[in-house]
Amino acid sequence: MPAGCMVRVKICFSCNREYIGKPKISRRDNKTEICGVCAEFEALRELLIQNIQQPTEAAFETFSQFLSIRFGPLRA
Length: 76
Ligand SMILES: [Zn+2]
Description:
Layout: E1 9-11, E2 18-20, E3 24-25, E4 33-34, H1 36-51, H2 57-71
Antiparallel strand pairs: 1-2, 3-4
Bound molecules: zinc ion.
The site of zinc ion has 8 residues, from α1.
């Protein structure tokens, strides 16, 4: 990488893919640097775990929003 290059490519510890930009800190141990997508997945996972015994409409709503953002609109 050339000196002075502002773009820093990092490897995500969670998915092992390269990513650019500020790393997010994993919620699992509060120190591992992961990519934005994995950080979203962890947040989502946490939300689902919190709601697993008492599923709420809000949790499902967030989940479907997340999926449609990542993978496109859900199809029947
Ligand atoms: Zn990742």
